[in-house]
Amino acid sequence: MAMEPSEMEPSAMERWELCELYLRNRKRKEDGGLYYDLVISYIGREVVSERLTGVTGDAQAWPSQNPWRMALGQLAAGGWELVSIQHSVVNDDQAGELRSGLPYIERDHLSPVNALAYFKRRTQAGRAVNEPRVSVRAG
Fold first, then answer.
1. With bands split at pLDDT 50, 70 and 90, how would you rate the model's confidence at 31?
2. Fewest CB atoms within 10 A around its CB: which of 57, 90, 128, 134?
3. CB 72 within 8 A of CB 53
């Protein structure tokens, strides 16, 4: 006996929203600060993406304060559960540039330049997929 479409729909407790946080790049600016290029995509019944560009951070404060970590923290505080995180590794071309601001970075270490994190949370009636909003701009 075939199921009716309404019987195949998962209940609200079984539905998930997904979020992808992508650190596309991090470059040193002429003034010594760091430029971060982040993209956040929320995936539910709709897909909402936002590019968080032009975000700067202090090179010396990178290990403890940076837009990537700020976004991770805000997503966790907003009820998103981290599912997985992936980093590229530092190649020879990156090692010299990264080492100038981060002396502990060596070839084949996890790269602070490219990373991808995936999150999930249960759907909630009346809540937009991109709520609460992530803001990583220095204020």
1. confident
2. 128
3. no
Alpha-carbon distance of 102 to 63, in angstroms, equals 9
- Are 61 and 111 contacting, i.e. CB atoms less than 8 angstroms apart? no
Q: Find all residues with CB under 8 Å of 108, minimum gap 6, and list them.
A: 89, 90
User: Which two three-digit tokens encode residue 19?
Assistant: 């979020």
Whether residue 125 has pLDDT greater than 60: yes
One-letter amino acid at 50 equals E
Q: Which residues contact 15 (CB under 8 A, 6 or more apart)?
A: 122, 123
Interstrand relation of 81-89 and 110-122 (parallel, antiparallel or unpaired) = antiparallel
Phi, then psi, of 2 in degrees rounded to 5: -75, 145
Which amino acid, residue 65? Q
Q: What pTM was estimated for this model as a whole?
A: 0.73
Q: CA-to-CA distance for 72 and 9, rounded, in angstroms? A: 31
Q: Which residue's entry shows tokens 């996890």?
A: 110
The predicted-structure confidence for 50-62, as pLDDT tens digits, reads as follows 987 656 656 555 5
